[in-house]
């Protein structure tokens, strides 16, 4: 089969994989991942699979390679069934919107700094590929902090992509000024010191990104992460925090996987020195991106119910919410 016929597609009637994704080298790396990674690390591949299969709106040339064949096929089947049944929400739409929201707010934060060098810290970076896909990061230093084995296997996959025939034009290059991997465990309190040892400068404007990470942590560990960032505010020039946080009802759906929650992140973050906290929900004007076309979709209904209400009065189900949170901070508050 010709290479151009094997591009991953989100089309409901077609699903093919690039030769790179099915190559022996890439398959071997993902086999190692299947054997060694736990649920937290595996969630990074699931997110990459969604970016790949929502490629008509999320442009990520590495997503399919980082996801791997098995997760791509599994997610595709979920999306296909949703389309066949005329579901009001297609699988993966929530994470596609989440990706677009973080991309948009990150670009706005960098513009708001008014020029100059910016640090971007991706905590629990997972299979994030922003360093390769967002051109507006050219004046940034990106720190990707995550488990050592995850960063190593991710690097191995990216090396395969760069060396492949798909990349003959050299389009897979780091768009930021620098990309620095920081092998560290967020659950251990020394992660900020490890970040600093890797070149993080407290005096530089900084964007902290906590995408898809806080709710996997215990309450104590998540609070430790937020408190540590809060202490860094005392020395950092200007800071923007971007995070997604589940409410209690959402976490309760799977207590074996999800742990930390906050029903009121706009009240939580000021405790750590942040101000101007803005909370959005999927379906809001800044968190829609034209992907929720059915007016009766679940997200649209939930956002109209007051946040203080735990049970949906229409069907008696828990009001599960994923909050997108943006906050600012500076040494002067």
From TrEMBL:
This is S-adenosyl-L-methionine-dependent methyltransferase. It comes from Rhynchospora breviuscula. Pfam families: LCM. Belongs to the UPF0677 family. Keywords: Methyltransferase, Transferase. It comes from the Eukaryota. One of its GO terms (biological process) is methylation. One of its GO terms (molecular function) is methyltransferase activity. Gene3D superfamilies: Vaccinia Virus protein VP39.
């Amino acid at each position: 089969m010709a290479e151009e016929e094997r591009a991953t597609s989100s089309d409901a009637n077609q699903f093919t994989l690039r030769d790179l994704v099915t190559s022996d080298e890439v398959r071997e790396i993902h086999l190692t991942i299947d054997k060694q990674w736990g649920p937290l690390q595996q969630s990074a591949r699931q997110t990459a699979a969604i970016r790949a299969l929502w490629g008509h709106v999320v442009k990520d040339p590495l997503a399919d390679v980082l996801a791997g064949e098995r997760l791509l096929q599994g997610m595709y089947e979920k999306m296909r069934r949703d389309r066949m049944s005329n579901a009001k929400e297609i699988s993966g739409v929530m994470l596609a919107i989440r990706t677009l929201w973080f991309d948009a707010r990150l670009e706005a934060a960098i513009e708001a700094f008014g020029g100059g060098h910016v640090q971007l810290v991706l905590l629990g970076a997972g299979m994030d590929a922003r360093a390769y896909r967002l051109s507006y990061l050219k004046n940034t230093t990106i720190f990707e902090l995550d488990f050592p084995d995850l960063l190593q296997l991710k690097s191995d996959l990216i090396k395969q992509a760069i060396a492949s025939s798909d990349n003959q034009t050299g389009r897979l290059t780091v768009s930021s000024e620098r990309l620095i991997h920081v092998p560290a465990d967020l659950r251990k309190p020394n992660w900020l010191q490890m970040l600093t040892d890797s070149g993080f400068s407290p005096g530089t404007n900084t964007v902290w990104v906590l995408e898809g990470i806080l709710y996997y942590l215990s309450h104590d560990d998540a609070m430790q992460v937020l408190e540590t960032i809060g202490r860094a505010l005392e020395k950092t020039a200007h800071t923007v925090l971007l995070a997604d946080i589940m409410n209690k009802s959402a976490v309760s759906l799977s207590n074996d996987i999800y742990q930390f929650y906050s029903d009121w992140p706009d009240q939580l973050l000021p405790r750590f020195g942040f101000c101007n906290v803005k909370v959005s929900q999927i379906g809001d004007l800044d968190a829609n991106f034209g992907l929720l076309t059915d007016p009766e979709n679940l997200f649209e209904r939930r956002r109209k119910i007051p946040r203080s209400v735990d049970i949906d009065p229409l069907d008696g189900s828990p009001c599960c919410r994923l909050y997108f949170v943006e906050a600012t901070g500076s040494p002067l508050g």
